Amino acid sequence: xxxxxxxxxxxxxxxxxxxxxxxxxxxxxxxxxxxxxxxxxxxxxxxxxxxxxxxxxxxxxxxxxxxxxxxxxxxxxxxxxxxxxxxxxxxxxxxxxxxxxxxxxxxxxxxxxxxxxxxxxxxxxxx
Length: 127
Hints:
Number of domains: 1
Order of helices and strands: HHHHH
Number of strands: 0
Shape: elongated
Radius of gyration: 27 Å
Structural class: mainly alpha
Helix content: 25-40%
Largest sheet: none
Distance between the termini: 44 Å
């Protein structure tokens, strides 16, 4: 016996419609920087003055590099992979039970559609 899902987590993914945009970018609509937080930070740091000595106090050695710094962050297949991950139910399956076009309600009507009789034979055959 299989139970029905109790709930589905809220999806907050926003699809990027611009194909020229990088895979990972900062979007101000999704992550706004509130003005009240910057004002609060200014008020907290007004009494504390930062000097050049404070900034030069600690430096990392030149030999320290970020982990995986030689590897690229993304490539030309990253955006399609993210879109496939967030695709609706039958389309996000790459393995497992094979779905026929007739099984998916969105496209089954396209495959069952017949060519009108007024078209030439050449068009009807390739339809």
